[in-house]
Design brief:
mainly beta, about 210 residues, about 10% helix, 14 strands, single chain, two-stranded antiparallel ribbon, eight-stranded antiparallel barrel
């Protein structure tokens, strides 16, 4: 393993579980040949250039949020990048919606119960690429409730940055019912539920090859 790659891994781990700067900044990318990559390749997320976001209805509006501390590992199989797996671990206490009062409520037992359930995970069972589209299959676990989900989106391909690191990227999303994960709190306002049950989840991942 190259020394620069080893440093990237250490920096990514520190960011995921402590906070602070993420992996090395991306440079202008140039296309590389997939044929030069071994049959099984691991990639670690560059958190500076990746996001895990959610959106949910509030009355007639929408509230957006994100998680700042998380970690993901990809394993691709085959030189054509058509399949692989993605595993993600997220610190639930790192959620933010831009409002401290609302964030504290979301961290409480009414919603994510972060003290009892400090992590949520996506355990990938596989992803498949078809031209520029991607589908990620896996098991999403929140508050010890696990459900199979499929995220669909855009595959950005594989490239090499100016520092010589190979990168892979994609964006994908899905909609889940929060009640399936034990998050059932709600109240009625004028006959309308205050909070929607459908939650939109979007992931945008740029990851660096580590072997």
């Amino acid at each position: 393993m190259r020394a620069g790659t080893s440093a990237l891994i250490a920096t990514g781990l520190a960011t995921a579980f402590v906070g602070g700067p993420g992996a090395a900044n991306a440079q202008t990318a140039t296309h590389i040949s997939a044929a030069s990559v071994p049959a099984e390749t691991k990639w670690v997320v560059d958190m500076v250039h990746s996001q895990v976001d959610f959106r949910v209805r509030h009355l007639v509006g929408r509230v957006r949020g994100t998680f700042s501390k998380w970690y993901a590992v990809l394993v691709t199989k085959g030189a054509d990048w058509k399949d692989g797996t993605v595993n993600v671990s997220i610190q639930t206490s790192s959620l933010t919606t831009g409002n401290s009062y609302r964030d504290a409520d979301l961290r409480s037992d009414r919603f994510f119960a972060v003290k009892r359930f400090p992590k949520m995970t996506f355990q990938g069972t596989g992803f498949a690429v078809n031209d520029s589209t991607v589908k990620l299959h896996g098991i999403l676990t929140i508050r010890n409730h696990s459900e199979p989900i499929v995220l669909s989106g855009v595959y950005r391909g594989v490239a090499q940055d100016l520092e010589g690191h190979e990168r892979i990227a994609f964006e994908a999303g899905t909609v889940v019912d929060r009640r399936d994960f034990g998050i059932t709190y709600n109240q009625s306002v004028g006959g309308t539920d205050l909070i929607g049950n459908d939650v939109e989840i979007t992931v945008a991942i740029e990851a660096v090859r580590v072997d």
